[in-house]
Specification:
two-stranded antiparallel sheet; rod-shaped; 15% strand; alpha+beta; 2 domains; 3-stranded antiparallel β-sheet; 5 strands
Length: 165
């Protein structure tokens, strides 16, 4: 078995490597190294550097997947918008597909829904079914706003991770 001696990059201590080694630990300082062999050369790389590279790659992949998930959730919000349009089409913009979701806020809808509810309640001949649908729509709107706010925060967080790497 051929033994090769190298020097630890951290402390200068002696490292003993064999041809079948893929990693080595310095007996003096405990530094761990990955070993790679080529035809005429041996290289050692600090194990923590290799792990950092893997971690960055894993973080980026996870964030890319999260951005896709967020996009799907935003599509669910657009479906809610079309549902809301069917109930109260006169105050929600039907051309929603042209909006950039993260720069577009659903919060004004809540005020508009409240306005329509109050105007319906003030009528002499009230349509109680319509008012009931509007009130249910209002409750859904509150949930959509909370989800939209959460998705905005998540989107920004994951976008920063993907753009850093």
């Amino acid at each position: 078995m051929e033994i090769i001696e190298m020097t630890c990059k951290n402390c200068g201590g002696k490292l003993t490597i064999t041809k079948d080694s893929d990693q080595v630990i310095c007996q003096h300082c405990g530094s761990e190294y990955l070993i790679s062999f080529s035809e005429n050369a041996i290289s050692i790389k600090n194990l923590s550097e290799g792990i950092k590279g893997v971690q960055k790659s894993t973080d980026k992949t996870a964030s890319e997947l999260a951005l896709k998930r967020i996009d799907n959730q935003l599509k669910t919000i657009s479906q809610w918008i079309f549902k809301a349009n069917a109930i109260c089409g006169h105050f929600i913009n039907p051309n929603i597909e042209n909006y950039e979701f993260l720069s577009f806020s659903p919060i004004p809808w809540l005020k508009q829904i409240d306005y329509v509810i109050e105007s319906e309640k003030s009528k002499i001949f009230k349509n109680k079914d319509y008012i009931s649908k509007l009130e249910a729509l209002r409750a859904e709107c509150v949930k959509v706003i909370d989800t939209w706010k959460f998705l905005n925060k998540q989107y920004e967080y994951h976008r920063k991770i993907v753009s850093k790497l």
